[in-house]
Amino acid sequence: MTATPHPAAEVFLVNAVFRPRRIAEPAGVLFLAARAREAGYTVRVVEPGLEPAGDSRLGLDPAGVASLITGQAGPGRPDEGLDSPRPRPLVVGISSMSWQLEDTLALARELRDRGFRGLLVGGGHGPTLDPEAYLLPDSPLDAVVVGEGEEPFRELCDYARELARAGEPRGLVPIAGVLWRTPEGPRGEPPAPRLADLGRLPHMARDVLERKLEAFGGFEVGASIVSGRGCFARCAYCSISAYLDRQPGPRFRQRPPQDIVGEMASIHARYGVERFNFEDDNFLLPGRAGAARAEAFARACSSLDFRPRFFLQTRPDQVTEEALRPLLEVGLEDINVGIEAVFPGDLELFNRGGTAEDAERCLAVLHALGFTPSTENRRPSFRVGYITFHPYSTLDSLERSLAFLRRHELSPKKLKVTLRLYPATPIGARAAADGLALPGGGFRFLNPEVEAFYEALSGWLELWTPVRERVRSAEKRALSMVPPRDPDGVLVRTRMDLDRLAHEVARSLLEAAKSSDWATAVDRAAARARADLAAVAAGTDYRQACALADEIGRPEAGVDGWR
């Protein structure tokens, strides 16, 4: 795949996301870049989904990224379109989640095949939680960083520079938080305690924001902000909690509001950006502490010479009128609440530490403050994180979940959300011990009737999704135009009809799964559901909605659905 190379750099940092659904700024990579630059290194950040791939397309696969970094189109083959030969970097760091293991190793092999002999280092949640998988004896990686990486990675850069100057290896140096590949398995030093004062870190680099503005300047682009790190909760399914267990030090830290607002001001002054996405999971805190932090942040925002608009994430126990009112006054437009479950057995399994009543109270507060579900296309809006299926789901737990999602008119996309298993988490370990875990974070269901229900519902949703998304994509685009392009409301009306149909189909399939002859009943209910969808797709409203969608046109790939 053709790639336009970056200028020569000592350090390349790659976010191992090769098939992005939403291109966010990779905070971990960008903090490493900022720290390495602070130490005097030239750094290039590679976000594969934003790299030119030829023919006005964006997006590179691992081979394309390797070509971009090395100037080699393939093993031993300089590409005429690349500036080759040119200086090779000292270090390539690859940030990886657990499910990106294969892509990470594929990129590392492609780099080795093209003659790269510098340090290849993995980092992020994947290598931290399972370093052995990344550092098998035949792995192309040299090392991985465990835990937060700013200082260990900077020390690795120092080591690589010394190695290049000496011209020969001097052994594997002990660096806190770095595990090296050896024939006996990963060997190295445990990580140092996490940095307690986040104010000592440089602000994250803005390479990816600049690329987004360049690629999608005709659309509003938001900047990512990290207001804190870690989490005070210990949810049994969460990779963040397991990740935090791998390193000593405070599990949850937040930046001072003045520092956050100062970063927002500098981004606005440099790029003109007014929309910000707080990417950390807990912008607030429970109780009075959450309200106090919200008030302090709102006071700090009063110093800005523009009105920001921002998105944040939080838990239901942190949603209070006292915390959200001051944030609404200074630009809060969108909030994601991680409710995740309402069935008592699921809440206990997940170790969520809350109740179904907490979820209901949370949504009541949001409605009282004027928030509407994101599907209603009005601000301020809310969306909900929810885990519908897990290995131990029962028909009773699913009945509670489906009723909750339907009653609050939440997006039917939640109907198909399944838990991703991480071996290092309590649920992942339990599922593995019970023989339910599958490679790549998947699982089998303990209950066969749940399996039948899931297969029928997911199969129907595969048919429903493109039908619905054709309308939904046009709906969002039409309502963002001035004036709006849905004067008769056919897009909104059709999408709402499709959403109601999805909730009704889920309910009918669940009822079938509860019958004594559940296998036959589910098959019959699924056949009726397919017929109902076909009838809607053949109806007058849907045909009119599609005609309007074609007239409006589709947004550029990768933009629709961004926060």
Tertiary shape = globular
- Report helical residue fraction: 40-55%
In round numbers, the mean pLDDT is: 90
CATH homology superfamily of the domain at 11-188 = Cobalamin-binding domain
CATH topology of the domain at 11-188: Rossmann fold
Q: What is the SS-derived class?
A: alpha/beta
How would you describe this structure to a colleague?
The chain is α/β, with parallel strands linked by helices. Among the domains are: 11-188, 3-Layer(aba) Sandwich (Rossmann fold), CATH 3.40.50.280; 216-392, pyruvate-formate lyase- activating enzyme (Alpha-Beta Horseshoe), CATH 3.80.30.20. The chain has helices spanning 27-38, 62-70, 101-113, 125-129, 131-134, 150-166, 207-215, 239-245, 257-271, 287-301, 321-329, 344-350, 356-368, 395-407, 426-433, 448-479, 490-513, 518-537, 540-552; strands spanning 11-15, 43-46, 52-54, 57-58, 72-74, 77-78, 91-95, 119-123, 143-145, 178-180, 187-188, 223-225, 228-230, 252-254, 275-278, 309-314, 332-340, 372-373, 381-386. Helix 11 (321-329) links the parallel strand 16 (309-314) and strand 17 (332-340). Residues 1-6, 77-84 and 555-563 have low confidence and may be disordered.
Task: Tag the structure with descriptive keywords.
globular; 19 helices; alpha/beta; Rossmann fold; pyruvate-formate lyase- activating enzyme; six-stranded parallel β-sheet; seven-stranded mixed β-sheet
Task: Break the fold down into its secondary structure elements and pairings.
Elements: E1 11-15, H1 27-38, E2 43-46, E3 52-54, E4 57-58, H2 62-70, E5 72-74, E6 77-78, E7 91-95, H3 101-113, E8 119-123, H4 125-129, H5 131-134, E9 143-145, H6 150-166, E10 178-180, E11 187-188, H7 207-215, E12 223-225, E13 228-230, H8 239-245, E14 252-254, H9 257-271, E15 275-278, H10 287-301, E16 309-314, H11 321-329, E17 332-340, H12 344-350, H13 356-368, E18 372-373, E19 381-386, H14 395-407, H15 426-433, H16 448-479, H17 490-513, H18 518-537, H19 540-552
Parallel strand pairs: 1-2, 1-7, 7-8, 8-9, 12-15, 15-16, 16-17, 17-19, 18-19
Antiparallel strand pairs: 3-4, 5-6, 9-10, 10-11, 13-14
